[in-house]
Amino acid sequence: QESTHIYTKAEVSSHTSPETGIWVTLGSEVFDVTEFVDLHPGGPSKLMLAAGGPLEPFWALYAVHDQSHVRELLAQYKIGELNPEDKVAPTVETSDPYANDPVRHPALKVNSQRPFNAEPPPELLTENYITPNPIFFTRNHLPVPNVDPDTYRLHVVGAPGGQSLSLSLDDLHKFPKYEITVTLQCAGNRRSEMTQVKEVKGLEWRTGAISTAHWGGARLCDVLAQAGHQLCETEAHVCFEGLDSDPTGTAYGASIPLARAMDPEAEVLLAYEMNGQPLPRDHGFPVRVVVPGVVGARHVKWLGRVSVQPEESYSHWQRRDYKGFSPSVDWDTVDFDSAPSIQELPVQSAITEPQDGETVESGEVTIRGYAWSGGGRAVIRVDVSLDGGLTWQVAELDGEEQRPRKAWAWRLWQLQVPVPAGQKELNIVCKAVDDGYNVQPDTVAPIWNLRGVLSNAWHRVHVHVAP
Ligand code: HEM
Ligand code: MTE
After folding, report:
1. Does 326 share its domain with 243?
2. Nearest ligand, CA of residue 67?
3. CATH number of the domain where residue 455 is located
4. What is the ipTM of this complex?
């Protein structure tokens, strides 16, 4: 009788490379899948995301593994069992304001733990047109509030002569429900490329501070109308406050023009559903604002209060952040009042496959990525170059057709091309065009700004070709 090998979690987690062997677990079983990695139908890089740890969180995303032939295949690689006593007791520090933050998906690439900021890796980002909730990028400025859905109330300050509202979740569900697919992008997406030009202040986002979900909720214009608000030709803004607050009690806040909020065609939502589920805690449970075509910063999560003000929000994040400046402006000379707050974003695209530094097979290469533009402008074309921008080919656009002036979601794109004979390396570049014929700038330096926002230069990836 063979004795079963028992391994600790620590042992498993030290097996993450071809040299040490690549191990994974499923339930209490341990597998050495080193030989299988290159054979994985979903590609080696995806399997490697689970190296040294459990498969469950990844397989939960890809139901293709929920088949007996996949289990049988995995069983061939079994080497032992996990030590049953090896349960790492989570050490909860009660004074830690982040102690109640939710558990996150291990695939997320963490840019900061407290507050939590993380992006999906490129190989998962464009795997689905709709980003699965557990790997949707997360941008938090503060600890995640723990909101009780039964006692939750959304306060909507009434118009003069109208009435203020205090809406429970049930009340919100009584408004007509709208469902739309919307891409959210952080103003800091691709900031890490700006850092390469010159230091900037901010989180080092790569290409993943962008994700797409199908949102469901009440229309903001319907709720505002019930509170007596009307569209008026003024500078008025609708101000949002989150239930997350800093130690001084200051809540996260932002605002959008009243004209956008009241325009039914702008489809601004008070969302309580994300991809058919209640909002996950990281994404604003129980209610967040979704402002299609507008920078992520205005999509206020854990929404507590809505009011109409004569001017835009006085929040730090509205007036002292999320603005663009000339490359010549530094922290000594910056005048935040001199620039408007970012609302709609410029046209954007990036390559997710292959990745920088990778080696691709000679013969044929498949290039994939995403493209999106702000303000509901549709992406009409993506151009791809293999030679650093000397010659171009047009990529194939996938995903849902877009409605004119309401192209709220990204297009995924791909291009399958022969690798030019004799090439040892490729300088792959992509650039998108929107329906206003806006294009991306070719380099980062002329759009560099001290906060590292609006980084949308041609995306460049350098790869080697296997001999
Ligand atoms: C597809 C096995 C890990 C993502 C597959 C298929 C098998 C397989 C057999 C093809 C299934 C079919 O079409 O019937 C495995 C094994 C793994 C593993 C044995 C671990 C040892 C992962 C991980 C991820 C992943 C960690 C994601 C992060 C995918 C995807 C596909 C796939 C996206 C679909 C590929 C396509 O249809 O284009 N996997 N997998 N796999 N796998 Fe895995
Ligand atoms: N809302 C609250 N209440 N607190 C926040 O920190 N971050 C904003 C916005 N709404 C934030 C917020 C920023 S900058 C972005 S980019 C988006 O939420 C990110 O949304 P996500 O975490 O669901 O991707």
Report:
1. yes
2. 1
3. 2.60.40.650
4. 0.85
Question: Within this chain, do residues 176 and 308 fall inside the same structural domain, yes or no?
Answer: yes
Q: What is the pLDDT of residues 13-54, one digit of tens each?
A: 999 999 999 999 999 999 999 999 999 988 898 899 999 999
Burial class (CB in 10 A: 0-12, 13-18, 19+), 368: buried
Residue of minimum CA distance from atom 9 in ligand 2: 297
> Which of 50, 82, 114 is the last residue in one of the domains?
82
Domain enclosing residue 40, as ranges:
6-82
Residue 249 banded pLDDT, cuts 50, 70, 90: confident
Structurally, the chain folds into a number of domains equal to: 3
From 29, 38, 70, mutation site for ligand 1 pocket: most ligand atoms within 8 A of C-beta: 70
Q: Given the CA of residue 67, which atom of ligand 1 is nearest to it?
A: 14
- What pLDDT, in 10s, does the model give residues 226-244? 999 998 767 899 999 999 9
Q: What span, in angstroms and rounded, lies between the C-alpha atoms of 181 and 193? A: 28
Which CATH number does the domain housing residue 204 bear?
3.90.420.10
Residue 320 catalytic? no
Nearest ligand, CA 182: 2
Q: Which string of DSSP letters, residue by residue, matches 85-141?
A: T--------TT-TTTTPPP--TTSEEEETTTTEEE--HHHHTTSSSPPGGGS-EE-S
Tell whether the model's pLDDT for residue 64 goes beyond 70.
yes
Q: Which ligand is nearest to the CA of 70?
A: 1
CB 438 within 8 A of CB 366: no
Does residue 249 contact residue 268 with C-beta atoms inside 8 Å? no
Answer whether 10's CB lies under 8 Å from 46's CB: no
pLDDT at 389: 98
Residue 139 a catalytic site member: yes
Name the residue at shortest CA distance from atom 19 of ligand 1.
74
Ligand 1 center to residue 88 CA distance, Å? Answer: 28
Average predicted confidence (pLDDT) for the chain: 94
Q: What is the pLDDT of residues 264-290, one digit of tens each?
A: 999 999 999 999 999 999 999 999 999
Q: What is the pLDDT of residues 77-125, one digit of tens each?
A: 999 999 987 754 545 445 678 889 999 999 999 999 989 999 999 999 9
Residue 322 a catalytic site member: yes
- Do 356 and 330 fall within a single domain? no
The atom of ligand 2 lying closest to the CA of 317 is 14
77 an active-site residue? no
Shared-domain flag, residues 310 and 362 = no
Are residue 170 and residue 295 in the same domain, yes or no? yes
Examine the residue annotation and report whether 239 is marked as an active-site residue of this protein: no
Q: DSSP state, 180?
A: E
Say if residues 369 and 126 touch (Cβ distance below 8 Å): yes
If we measure between CA atoms, which residue out of 267, 253, 246 comes closest to residue 305?
A: 253
